[in-house]
Write a structure and sequence with these properties.
It is a single chain. The longest helix is centred in the middle third of the chain and has 12 residues, at 57-68. The chain is an alpha+beta fold. It has a 3-stranded antiparallel sheet with strand order 2-1-3, sandwiched between helices. The chain is globular and about 40 Å long. It is built from 7 helices and 3 strands; from the N terminus they run E-E-H-H-E-H-H-H-H-H.
C-alpha cells in the first residue's frame, strides 16, 4: 500500500509551504535543487517541520487544502502539537464571536 504525505516546510523567510507527495525524501530534494519549485527554491534553507502519512490520495489532498486555508498561528499550533491553541484558532467567529471584539467590550473604562 502506498503512503501519501502531507507536509509543511518552513522557509528561510519564516513562511510555510504546504504540499503533498508519495515520496517525501525525493520531494524534499526536489524542493532544494529544482528551480521549477520557485517558491521554495528562492527561500532556502528549508526545514521540514511537520508531516502526516495518509493511505488514500484523496484524503491527503483534502488535508493539504484544509491546512493551506489556515492562519499562520493555526499552522504553528499544529506544528508544535499545541492542541488547545489548534482548537482555539479553529473556532468559528459566527458561532463563538470575534475574540478581539469580546475583549474590548468587556474591558473597564
Amino acid at each position: 500500500m502506498k503512503t501519501y504525505f502531507v507536509y509543511i516546510l518552513k522557509c528561510s523567510d519564516d513562511s510555510f509551504y504546504t504540499g503533498i507527495t508519495n515520496n517525501l525524501e525525493r520531494r524534499l530534494i526536489e524542493h532544494k535543487t529544482k528551480k521549477s519549485f520557485s517558491y521554495t527554491y528562492k527561500r532556502q534553507p528549508l526545514e521540514l517541520v511537520w508531516y502526516l502519512g495518509c493511505t488514500k490520495p484523496d484524503e491527503a489532498i483534502k488535508i493539504e487544502k484544509q491546512i493551506k486555508g489556515w492562519s499562520r498561528r493555526k499552522k504553528q499550533a499544529l506544528i508544535s502539537e499545541n492542541w488547545n491553541d489548534l482548537i482555539k484558532f479553529s473556532k468559528n467567529y459566527t458561532e463563538y464571536g470575534n475574540p478581539i471584539e469580546k475583549a474590548s467590550s468587556t474591558g473597564s473604562d
